[in-house]
């Protein structure tokens, strides 16, 4: 049995959220591997979607991505009561679009040895929520590459007479911008 085979048999986690705003719609997806690594995605939709449709899109895309990444035992989390209850069969879907999403999810569930979906409070879905809001609020991003950096402190010296020694600033913005950071790494020197 290979390492990939071993991780397939372990539990993978999927947190999803959809968002629909005046600027557009999008999904936030966080896949957590059995080793605890978070794979985070903000997906901007090129089509209009209601909030419920965005929630379903997020789940469908997340399930596909998790499967393609190697997950076979998937525990999915969503803060959408409607989506969770319809997927569980507790609520009946009446709109044609919701019925079609449920069919896609039923088909995707067959690709997993085990699949379960759980409704969680919005506060427990913060990563997926922030990613979905980022994606839905972006204007046309088809031709844009966006890098997000973390700046741990201000790049200006403290003001006032006690700090007027003319100390040198750290890396300039242009130097920081040329360097990519990995999760957990800061830009400060």
TrEMBL record:
Residues 153-189 are annotated as: Disordered. It comes from the Eukaryota. Gene3D superfamilies: Ribonuclease H-like superfamily/Ribonuclease H. Residues 8-137 form the RNase H type-1 domain. InterPro entries: RNaseH-like_sf (IPR012337), RNaseH_domain (IPR002156), RNaseH_sf (IPR036397). PROSITE patterns: RNASE_H_1. SUPFAM superfamilies: Ribonuclease H-like. GO terms for molecular function: nucleic acid binding; RNA-DNA hybrid ribonuclease activity. It holds the Pfam family RVT_3. This is Ribonuclease HI.
């Amino acid at each position: 049995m290979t390492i990939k085979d071993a991780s397939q048999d372990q539990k993978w986690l999927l947190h999803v959220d959809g968002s629909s705003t005046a600027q557009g719609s999008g999904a936030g997806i966080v896949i957590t591997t059995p080793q605890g690594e978070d794979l985070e995605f903000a997906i901007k939709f090129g089509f209009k979607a209601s909030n419920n449709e965005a929630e379903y899109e997020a789940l469908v895309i997340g399930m596909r991505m998790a499967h393609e990444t190697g997950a076979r035992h998937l525990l999915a989390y969503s803060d959408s009561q409607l989506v969770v209850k319809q997927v569980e069969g507790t609520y009946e879907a009446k709109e044609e679009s919701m019925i079609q999403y449920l069919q896609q999810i039923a088909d995707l569930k067959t690709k997993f040895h085990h699949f379960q979906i759980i409704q969680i409070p919005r506060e427990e879905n913060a990563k997926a929520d922030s990613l979905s809001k980022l994606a839905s609020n972006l204007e046309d991003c088809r031709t844009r590459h966006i890098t997000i950096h973390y700046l741990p402190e201000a790049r200006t010296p403290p003001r006032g007479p006690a700090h007027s020694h003319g100390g040198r600033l750290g890396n300039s913005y242009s130097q920081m911008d040329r360097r990519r950071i990995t999760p957990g790494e800061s830009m400060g020197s």
